[in-house]
Design a protein that fits this description.
18% helix, alpha+beta, Immunoglobulin-like, seven-stranded antiparallel sheet, 2 helices, 3 domains, 215 residues
Length: 215
């Protein structure tokens, strides 16, 4: 009888422990809604360019943050030729951001990839949750042009890629096209199909003056 009663007491304690554990877990889930969806918050990656180069960022923002969560963002950017940069933003609240940057490189064009991992720390449970993985991309290409003299009376403007407006040909009219077989080569940066940096590079070249796409 004694052993049996002890078994019943032990089973009763196990049941109580299980009920308490489930109750605590339900409280944590209620207080820390970080399981694939956050209410009143957003996480994203973005990309843009300035005249200095190519930028990317990862952002998490909690519009209410009633539970004193903190956020960390890990952002990285990789170029088509494998150049790599990363940065960690946070932990902070209610806004966390990580920015990355790479210089323009005329030998490193096509698609730049930006990716971010977004984490949330819940002070109630003491746990960190992955709440989102986001990505962005940006396409970098070149428009290359040449202005050269074919004969004593004819100057010709040739463009590879989209035609970006600029002053390279006008400059050449005043400082070189009068000479035989002289030409000026120009490079513009194109971002997502749109001219961005006009006449990034203008190079005057001597004879023979034939033009080819720059490397």
């Amino acid at each position: 009888m004694i052993n049996c009663n002890r078994d019943k007491v032990a089973k009763g304690r196990k049941i109580v422990v299980k009920i308490v554990a489930v109750a605590v877990w339900l409280v944590i889930i209620t207080v820390c809604p970080a399981f694939g969806q956050m209410y009143g918050s957003s996480s994203y990656s973005d990309s843009w360019t300035t005249e200095q180069g190519i930028w990317g960022c990862g952002v998490t923002e909690d519009y209410y943050n009633n539970y004193n969560h903190t956020y960390t963002v890990y952002t990285e950017m990789t170029s088509p030729q494998g150049r790599y940069v990363s940065f960690t933003g946070g932990p902070s609240a209610p806004y966390s951001r990580a920015d990355v940057f790479l210089d323009f490189d005329l030998n490193d064009t096509e698609t730049y990839m930006i990716s971010s991992n977004h984490e949330q720390y819940c002070p109630v449970s003491g746990d960190t949750f992955m709440i989102a993985s986001t990505a962005a991309s940006i396409d970098i290409s070149l428009s290359q042009s040449a202005y050269f003299k074919q004969d004593p009376s004819t100057c010709r403007w040739v463009t590879w890629g989209i035609n970006c407006p600029g002053t390279c040909s006008q400059d050449h009219n005043t400082n070189g096209c009068a000479g035989p077989n002289l030409y000026k080569e120009c490079v513009d940066i194109v971002v997502n199909g749109n001219c961005f940096v006009y006449r990034l590079s203008c190079l005057g070249r001597p004879s023979p003056g034939t033009c080819s796409r720059a490397n």
